[in-house]
Task: structure prediction
Amino acid sequence: MMSSIITGLFSSQGQSAQIGADLENAGFNYSDYVMYLHEKPIKKEIKTSIWRSFFNDKTQLEDDSLVISVKVTDPKEEEKVTEIFKKNKVFHQNYFENIKLQDVKSLEYLKKIVTVRAKALIYSSPAIHHHDPLSGMSSELIFGKER
Result:
């Protein structure tokens, strides 16, 4: 069975231990999630640019933000992760269906998936029909009589 991935953005890498403990207390193994940590600080402008490229949104990242991906295989696990993310004040959350956790260990691969997903969401807008404000119902109505 193919799993799905929930990815969340948090304000600080200092949250990693608590979120990891919450996930493990909820029944997830260490091998069920990936925390994208960095040893050297990355400027918030660079991180914001990468996040916007990945997820096509306007979230402004702090210097110390944290991204976590969690493998889920059923709706109960999905609900658990969503609750843990909410409890830990997730800024933004994404759900990716039919993807292996091994694949998202690479941020480059995750970026490709997000790009494809964003392109798939773009659709051509339906035709728009404009009506003349005077072409509505006539004020002259005849009730109960046939013409």
In short: The chain is about 35% helix and 15% strand. The domain at 4-121 is CATH 3.30.70 (Alpha-Beta Plaits). Strands lie at 4-10, 33-36, 66-72, 92-96.
